[in-house]
Amino acid sequence: MSITQNxxxxxxxxxxxxxxxxxxVRQAREAIxxxxxxxxxxxxLTSEEIVDIEAGADSDPAKLxxxxxxxxxxxxxxxxx
Length: 81
Description:
CATH topology: 434 Repressor (Amino-terminal Domain)
InterPro entries: Cro/C1-type_HTH, Lambda_DNA-bd_dom_sf
Pfam families: HTH_3
GO molecular function: DNA binding
Protein name: Transcriptional regulator with XRE-family HTH domain
Number of domains: 1
Oligomer: single chain
């Protein structure tokens, strides 16, 4: 069975809780030895934006994709795509 828009039950779609996203971002950043300032410079977000993401206060998918690219990990590391 192929997946199409018609056979996806959106009520059963998976989402990752903000706390898990925050932990995944922090873990990926620390795994390559980046500080928040390093990540900020690499992905173009402010340090404050990264702090908010790592605190679980923000989970903007566009920001998460930028962070994933900067850390050279798949975006799915941070959320279900």
